[in-house]
Amino acid sequence: MVALPTARFRLGKDPPAGPRVSQELADAPKREDRTHGAARAPPRKEDPPMADADAYRRYLAESRPRHLDELSAWLRIPSISTLPEHAPDMAAAAAWAADQMRAVGLQNVQVMPTGGHPVVYGDWLHAPGRPTLLVYGHYDVQPADPLELWQTPPFHPEIRDGRLYARGASDDKGQIFMHLKAAEALRHLDGAPPLNLKFIIEGEEECGSENLARYVHAEAGRLRCDVATVSDTPMLGAETPSLCESIRGIASLELTLRTGVSDLHSGLYGGAAPNALHVLCALLAQLHDADGRVSVPGFYDAVRAVTPAERSAYAALPFDAAGFAAEVGAPSLTGEAGYSVVERVWRRPTLELNGVWGGFQGTGQKTVIPCVAHAKITCRLVADQDPAKIADLVAAHARRLCPPTATVEVSQQGGGEPAITPRDHPAMQAAARAMAAAYGKEPVFAGMGGSIPVVPMLQHELGAPVVLIGFGLNGEHFHAPNEYFTLSNFDRGLLALCLFYEGLAASSPSVR
């Protein structure tokens, strides 16, 4: 999971109402079936009426002890993907997910081998005339170190003060488990899910999802869908239901600047020989202008503008600027002129220096003129920027800025694309209605400054919008000791997912 380290929100107050639902799902145009490419049958006239929210509340309340016992069993498996010694645990966690898929009524369940840890797939495709929803999640977790900081063992789940403590409780076993239980509730109360469902649960999200892209590309036909959804993002607060509409992408580079073949004595050569650190620092200082804008030509050419309506909505969020500044710890904030802090961290691109080094790094003095200096750079990108193009632009600008006294080499370190699903998209509106019904208030729409590579991957490979409907909280210590999941969000989130599924089912065949 990627946290929202970009803002503090006043969690004790109700936020202003978000934009009202304005577009019905039925407005979306019809198209070919996305279950397996066949023409859709007309809607089924014999469909029984769907369960109402109160029926779901009763069923989920009655099933809660069993659900928490089942989730705890999964959490006891130390499925740490990055550590080779946990390979048997990874296999066990995948098998557990497959068993749960079968238990909730999914079919065609398979534990699919990859070049690393397996992907678990299951589906239910018996709703002709209804949309197909693809649900993504991951069963792998972060290492639990440092163990001594845990109040209770990380793989011995415990409920305290309305929270379920365990590694993976929030990120992401707890949240993908909720989707499985929503499918169970639909089957129990409606007799069968009212829409087509496909699940993929991978085992490498916490170590880079190295094999997922190959799997999705190879299985694109099987995975085709109308809408995809991911629950691996946090809400703005426990009482602030929210939907994430945008994530930033990333482009990474490393610069190596040379002024000679060897470090030189600063007394014998100082004042005449070029200093690699001096030259590099002067080059890097020219990557931004005085107003905080990135000065790379073409950097902003493809940036999708923040609309007036979006700016108004962001301004209405319960953002605590003082709390954000305190979290940063700097004397004052910085950034691109003309944009609020929320806009800067969610919807504007950046160029950041992640590390600059060269010369002598040890204790004491070594009077040298360094001949080589390095810098690591990452650019956070927004829709519709292309990571490869941005990396090329930054590399070309660095070469232009390099003076005749030096040479610069640029190594591109890869990247990931940004993604956005507009808040007025029919699938987002269906999610907003479900969140409002479950939480008793309209949700707000948020962005996220970090990157989730699977989201643009699904958008590009499957051509489907991705709804980010997460129920975690920033303070739940995912990736840190004492991770927990707030059970009030487990309860309300389960209801929201049931209603979201039903909202999609009531739409036309296409909600793209």
Describe the structure.
The chain has 512 residues and is an alpha/beta fold. The protein has two domains: 25-38 and 50-247 and 418-505, Zn peptidases (Aminopeptidase, 3-Layer(aba) Sandwich); 249-303 and 349-416, Alpha-Beta Plaits (2-Layer Sandwich). Helices cover 32% and strands 20% of the residues. It has 14 helices and 20 strands. The chain has helices at 53-75, 87-103, 173-190, 212-218, 220-223, 266-269, 276-285, 308-316, 321-328, 341-346, 387-401, 426-439, 454-462, 487-505; strands spanning 107-112, 119-124, 132-138, 158-160, 163-165, 196-202, 227-230, 234-235, 242-247, 249-258, 264-265, 350-358, 368-369, 372-381, 407-416, 419-420, 444-448, 466-468, 472-473, 484-486. The strands form six sheets. Strands 1-2-6-3-7-18 form a six-stranded mixed β-sheet, sandwiched between helices. Strands 12-14-10-15 form a four-stranded antiparallel β-sheet, covered by helices on one side. It has a three-stranded antiparallel β-sheet with strand order 4-5-20. A hairpin with a 2-residue loop joins β4 and β5. α1 packs across α3 and α1 crosses α14. The longest helix is centred in the first third of the chain and has 23 residues, at 53-75. It is globular and about 85 Å long.
